Amino acid sequence: MKKKNEKLMFAIAGGALITASFVPMVAYLSRKKEEQHAGVGMLLGAVAGLTAGILLAYEPERRARRRVVVDQMFDDDDAAVASRRINGVLNRSEERGAKPESLRREIDVDEDATVDDFI
Q1: 48: closest CA among 28, 24, 84?
Q2: How far is CA 76 from CA 65, 72, 84, 95, 106, in A?
Q3: pLDDT tens digits, residue range 56-93?
Q4: What are the residues whose beta carbons fall under 8 Å from the beta carbon of 23, sequence distance 6 or more?
Q5: Given pLDDT bands bounded at 50, 70 and 90, which one contains residue 101?
Q6: CA 118 to chain centre
Q7: Count of alpha carbons within 13 Å of 36, Cβ hemisphere only?
Q8: CB–CB of 37/31 below 8 Å?
Q9: Cα angle vertex 21, ends 17, 24, to 5°?
Q10: Which one, of 101, 102, 81, 103, lies nearest residue 92 by Cα?
Q11: 3-state secondary structure the chain
């Protein structure tokens, strides 16, 4: 039900934006026809509104297609293979546990140690 409501809201918002964009376009064309001063900003705003309205109305369809493509690209077997490869790169395995071995080495420090001993 949520998907249907979301699709309806996008369609209503896109349709309202498209409808509202026709007003400045008609005003621009009528002023141009009567040879009155017609601002190009009116026309650009109308075209931008039409474009945004079309994109907004098409958004649910775009999301649905993207979801299908991702589902087709990556199934459960591919996810398991990718997880094993990532764990291998990160030096993690099921036998060793989740923590990789530390790359730090332990240095025994005695009371006579100086900074020069570690350089």
Answers
A1: 24
A2: 20, 11, 12, 22, 41
A3: 888 888 887 777 766 667 777 887 888 888 887 887 76
A4: 46
A5: low
A6: 48
A7: 7
A8: yes
A9: 155
A10: 101
A11: CHHHHHHHHHHHHHHHHHHHHHHHHHHHHHHHHCCCCCCHHHHHHHHHHHHHHHHHHHHHHHHHHHHHHHHHHCCHHHHHHHHHHHHHHCCCECCCECCCCCCCCCCCCCCCCCHHHHC
Mean pLDDT estimate for the chain: 78
Q: How far apart are CA 1 and CA 13, in angstroms?
A: 18
pLDDT band at 15 (very low <50, low <70, confident <90, very high): confident
Can you say whether the dihedral through the CA atoms of 109, 113, 115, 117 is positive or negative? negative
Per-residue tokens: 17: 């934006």
* Residue 25: count of CB within 10 angstroms of its CB: 16
Tokens of 67: 């979801």
